[in-house]
Every structure is written in structure tokens, then in C-alpha cells.
Amino acid sequence: MSLVRFVQPGESIQRALDEAGPGARIQLAEGAYAENVWIRHGGVTLNGMGRGRTLLVPGEPAPVDIPRLHDASGDVVNGVSVHGEGVDDVTIAGLTVRGFSGAGIYAHGISGLAVREVEALDNAVWGVYVRECHRCEVARCRASGSQYGGIALSFCSRAEGLVADNETFANAFGIFIDNSSWARVLRNTCHGNAVGMLMLNQTYEGEPDGGVRDCLVAGNDLYGNVLAGGAEPDGLGAAGPPISGVGLALIGTQRVSVVDNQIHDNHPSGESVMGGAFVLGSSQGWGGDDAVDNHILWNRVTGNSPLDYQLGADLDRQAFAGNVAGKGDPEDAEGWSR
């Protein structure tokens, strides 16, 4: 059993991680740490004293060979990076990561990742960004103020992931399930974003195979998503089309179950390619797939504009039951009551 290494403000977290090596348990005292760090050994636990009590902010840079954020320039800095061969079974918990020019937390290619009770605030690109990982968990976190996703699973083809009990706001996408499958997205609160939750199957040149399949989305509260994304070249959600006022969008998903979610009071503040608070559509025109074999059950979708739901998929290939909504397209869709 590894010993706990204690770090105080003014001491180097990076030095403690490197000296302790694989299996390190690093306990950060209360206070602010002005540095960014790279977890490059397996079995590491990095613990703070709690959100708002242990704070990581930009300052002294980590080693120059630190992996850069995917698709970002070399000068973009992440708060905590988890990346490297054999870097598995890593836990990050109990701290606030604020103000970095990249992601607050960036994990790439990890098997066995847990990010718990972390606050990712005003990190320029992503809050918590999990890419090509397996057995990944993001739970009881708070993420806001990022250009793209507050919390994102990206190209986690067999995520076996859990995204649960988080709060996201003031991002382009509160929670972004990007070409990731086998994920459970449970009991999250997403408000004040352009899109509360986006599940997108779209293949990109040079990227791994895409797909969003075999996921469960249940018990989430998606409301008041009113920001506008995709409108400004360097603004919120700049890589995508204009989008605003969406609670939950399933684009090109397959065998996704959406159960017992509250989607309410979402209103666009700008142009949007999506016309409802709940959207089901195809991504085949973008290199993805048609939306098929999804189950939309017992959701309450009310008080949204311009529509509560917009179903742009083959309805005979889906299952709808017990949903409550006001106006939608098509108006006579089965499984929706007023």
C-alpha cells in the first residue's frame, strides 16, 4: 500500500507526483497552487480538500514535454493532464481547477479514470475533457465557462462510462457525448448553456471511428439553456453550426434510452439549426448514421420554444411511450401526450 504524500501551497505538486511515481497518493492541503500538472504514472490519486478549498490556477508551467490538448496549439495549457503509456487507474478528486487556456482536466487514452467532486471553472476550451478512455467516471462535478463542453466524453468507443450528478452551465454544451458509446448519463443538471446535453455521432477525417450507441440518459434536469453557440468565429461553440435553446439533442444515435428526464424552459437567444428543446435527428449527411432503435420513455418536455420536441428521424425505428410535451414536430407523434 502506497504512502500518502502531503503537499502544501507553495510546494510543487508536479515534483511530488514525479518523486512518488506509480501508485502515488497525493493529498493537497487547502489553498491555491499556481501550476499545471501532468499525471504520467498509473495508479495515482490526486486529492484536494474540496471544491473551493483547494484551488489550481495558471502559474509555473509543467514539464515542457507535457502532451498538448488534442487539436489545440502548443501554447494552450491544461490544469491537470492525464496521458501516457500505462497511465491507468487514476483518480482526481476534491479540487477547483480554474482559468486555464485549455481544459481544466484532460485525460487521453486512460483505462480506469475517476474525476469526482471537481469544479472546473472558466477554462477556455473544455471543463473536463475525457478522450479515448475506457472505464471512465465523472461524478458530482461542476463545470462552467468553457467554449465547448463543460463535461465531454470524446471518441470513447467502449466507455463503460458514468457521467452522474454533475452541474454544468455557461458552456456551449453542458454535457457532450461525442462519438462515445456504452455510457450512463444520470441525474445531471444542465442549465444556462447553448445546449444542455448533446449526443453526436459524426465521423471526422483523421479521427477514430465514431458512433453513439448503447447509452442510458436518465433522471437529468435540462432547463434554461438559452445561450447562442456557433455564431461567432472565435466564440462559444465556434466549430459547429449555430445552435441555441436546446435541452437534449440525439444526433445519429443508436440504441440510446432516454428515460424520465425533465426538459423545460429552454429558449433560443439566437439562430439555431435545431428547432426544439428535445431533438432527434440523423447525422448521415455529416458522415454519421441515421438515428435508429432509440427508446424515448416517460420524459417531461414542457415550456420550451419554439417547440418542445423536433423528431427528424424514422419514427418507425424508434420507441416512444409515456412522454409529456406541449407542441412538437410532428404534432401527431405517438408516445407524446399534452
TrEMBL record:
What does the organism's lineage look like at the top?
A: Bacteria, Bacillati, Actinomycetota, Actinomycetes, Streptosporangiales
Question: Per its UniProt entry, which superkingdom is the organism in?
Answer: Bacteria
- Keywords, ordered alphabetically: Repeat
Key word Membrane present in the record? no
Spans through the membrane: none
For this entry, the protein name equals Right-handed parallel beta-helix repeat-containing protein
Which stretches make up the Right handed beta helix domain? 79-262
Taxonomic source organism = Sphaerisporangium flaviroseum
Q: Which Pfam families match?
A: Beta_helix
